[in-house]
Amino acid sequence: MDTRRVATEIRLSQWAQMIQGRRESGQSIQAYCQAVGVSRNTYFYWQRKLREMACEELGTRISREVSPSEKAFIPDGWAVCKSAEPVAMGKPVTIEIGGFRVIAEAESDPEILVKVCRALKSLC
Question: Which side of the chain, N or C, has fewer Cβ within a 10 Å radius?
Answer without folding.
Answer: N
